[in-house]
Amino acid sequence: MDNFISDISGQQFPSEQRILGASIRQPIFKLIKKEYPSFSKDKYIAASELTRFKETYISEFLKDESGQLSQLDQQVINSFKENKVISASLDGDNKEPVSVGDRVADKVAEFGGSWTFIISFILFLIVWIAANFFWLNNKGFDPYPFILLNLILSCVAALQAPVIMMSQNRQEDKDRERARNDYMVNLKAELEIRELHEKIDHLIIRKEQELVEVQRDQVEKLSFLLKKMEKIEEAFKNK
């Protein structure tokens, strides 16, 4: 296996890890140049060495105004460094137990915001009013103006409102968690796209170098053949 010597560490690496300085993005190239001033665009660095500078660049890029990385950004960097699928880790972290009260609040909010509840409650009101006003001739357990019915409606509204608010708060927490997950996945995708662009640029530059070397070799062979033909022509002329 062919090896090459890195121009920044002087160590040997496999030739497939060789990366030309000209194929490195300018911000990362500046970081390398800052630590190794002698490094230039016509020199080589190993892919494993370049990874460290990429991590430094990403950390500097994601730092907020306070100069610190958020927990989400740090988690994305770790997943990018370890080459892990971030969505899988997020799905595994979200298995939190749901209490009985939370489940009841969700069911109440789901039922209270449905047509089933509206139609059922209208039928209940119609039956209540008809039973007291018509069937019991307004002398039943809740005659007009239906004070007991108003009390029941007030109690239902007073209890239903905070339960629905509890469910809405849980939904807001879910939305925040979903937005957090979307941010992390999108950030990871952006970093991977940038990484892919760098790899494509590196492949293009490497292929161009190979073509240049092939052309140089062909030119040298042609020059050698031309010189040989000239010598043969001179030999014939001398005869």
UniProtKB/TrEMBL annotation:
Keywords on record: Membrane, Transmembrane, Transmembrane helix
One Pfam entry name: DUF1003
Transmembrane listed as a keyword: yes
Transmembrane segments: 115-135, 147-166
InterPro entries per UniProt: DUF1003
Record flagged with keyword Transmembrane helix: yes
PANTHER family per the UniProt record, alphabetical: INTEGRAL MEMBRANE PROTEIN-RELATED, MEMBRANE PROTEIN
Protein name: DUF1003 domain-containing protein
Protein's organism: Sphingobacterium paramultivorum
